[in-house]
């Protein structure tokens, strides 16, 4: 095992990196493009948007696509953050247009035939430069040049993301000294702490460039696959979706495990059928919103004898564009249209809702000709562990809690936030794995405020130079900034400034 670099090594590192940079400069110069205008936006963009590809592997056989938006505040000093959407296999366009980016689609004026873009007042790019990464290959506009290069898993996807960061910073050396953050939500809660560990390990053995990593932020993160799924039952009970009697009987008969159900346990199976009846019409991304009729889902996506109404909703969250909804109220209409327009901005919907990318958007985003006629989809469902064709992605990390635990002796700050009306990755499961870290509590459960109103509840944990802040977002769903953008920006800004929530 290599030792951390000595003082003398640190003294020559800038010179070595300068040589390193020169060697790479010619081959990366054409991989990025500035985007000054976008279809649907009137005039030039009032911020710096860059798109590009980073090649990975011995022959650059993996090509990862990114959107980069420079901070609208002080890009010279503001943090640089890598952001990854969930899935796995979901395009980071979801985060850009639907969660924390500076552009969105106003429901009042946008249509599927003619989407209109407008600026977002509560974008996280007000205070940070953000790289929105399509990862792994097969997500969004990212692709591979060989069939074998599409084959990946949780750990290799994390390593690729780490190597992407290193090569991206070689292309953008002016950001090398900016504080580096990693951010993600949903399924990327599995991948993110692996990336963070790779960064620390790489820095310790002297890999170039040295990454100025400081913090990570996770929103409604899937962390423990079984624990996260099982937490949906007590969450549903707490939210009065299940009666005391139903919850008690199901918990006892299923022994607290609602995923790995013994096929001979008829009492558990019966109770789960009752639970499914209670929950099947709940919109699990945000339980207060009306549900809509889903297109018929394949029966293979539902585990036999398991918790169907609860388990299948992890996929439902990434299928909003396939809802056929009539009579929904204005709040749901807004969230659905925003999601639909993410697709309409980049696609034409063809029966049966199979999208292809339209030419003017490809040209505006400088998508490579090599991408060819590959379909752009918001989320590549073949990456799902429950999809019968899931051959390219292996879910080899059941829980990332141990990765978090190994970070406790680092100098690092973490923010974990949860929309408290999300039943896909409920806050109760997130609190459970955080508590399993056995961190000392330095600020116990209390409300936090925006405009003198309760915006959620928070706790803070501290272990020497490692701190973790948990924050619930009151009324937030699975992607909390989609529902509570003002509150989430305030939360993020206070955390950046080390202010108390």
TrEMBL record:
Record carries keyword Transmembrane: yes
Signal peptide location: 1-31
Top-level taxon of the source organism: Eukaryota
Membrane-spanning intervals of the chain: 330-350
InterPro entries cross-referenced by the UniProt entry: AB_hydrolase_fold, Peptidase_S10, Ser_caboxypep_his_AS
Entry GO CC: extracellular region
Any GO MF annotation of the entry: acyltransferase activity, transferring groups other than amino-acyl groups
Biological process terms in GO annotation: proteolysis; secondary metabolic process
Keywords: Carboxypeptidase, Disulfide bond, Glycoprotein, Hydrolase, Membrane, Protease, Signal, Transmembrane, Transmembrane helix
Similarity-based family: Belongs to the peptidase S10 family.
Database matches in PANTHER family: SERINE CARBOXYPEPTIDASE-LIKE 7 ISOFORM X1 (PTHR11802:SF224), SERINE PROTEASE FAMILY S10 SERINE CARBOXYPEPTIDASE (PTHR11802)
Protein's recorded name: Serine carboxypeptidase
